[in-house]
Amino acid sequence: xxxxxxxxxxxxxxxxxxxxxxxxxxxxxxxxxxxxxxxxxxxxxxxxxxxxxxxxxxxxxxxxxxxxxxxxxxxxxxxxxxxxxxxxxxxxxxxxxxxxxxxxxxxxxxxxxxxxxxxxxxxxxxxxxxxxxxxxxxxxxxxxxxxxxxxxxxxxxxxxxxxxxxxxxxxxxxxx
Length: 176
Description:
By secondary structure, the protein is mainly alpha-helical. It is built from 8 helices and no strands.
């Protein structure tokens, strides 16, 4: 079960990375800085809780069902963006600048795994390391995706496929 949750969090971050690759350079930089600042900010809050608390939350069926509903809603919003055209000004503008709000809990998950996977390492060092990694991976990954998939519709197709996999894994995680 722990592997499925890690895969799900990775897919959510990949979805956010692809969505960020569709944005302008200024927006990509702003989102990467916000994600990096979030990683630095969340470290003291994550160290106050034990690793067992997170393990128990991941094993609770009610929590998994609530999280699965949020993930499906986020995935449907991302899939709706894939079908919107720039001619639809109202929805397109709203969906265009939404990078994926579930990337923040996924970043928290990986931050907890990193904090408790490196025992004896200073938490401040881990916070700066993870913030720097997120900044570099978001900027570098989005540039790499734009370079590899030069056409916008290919990025949207990749975004659709990743979000479809998120929905399928939500069904598998909840056990239906």
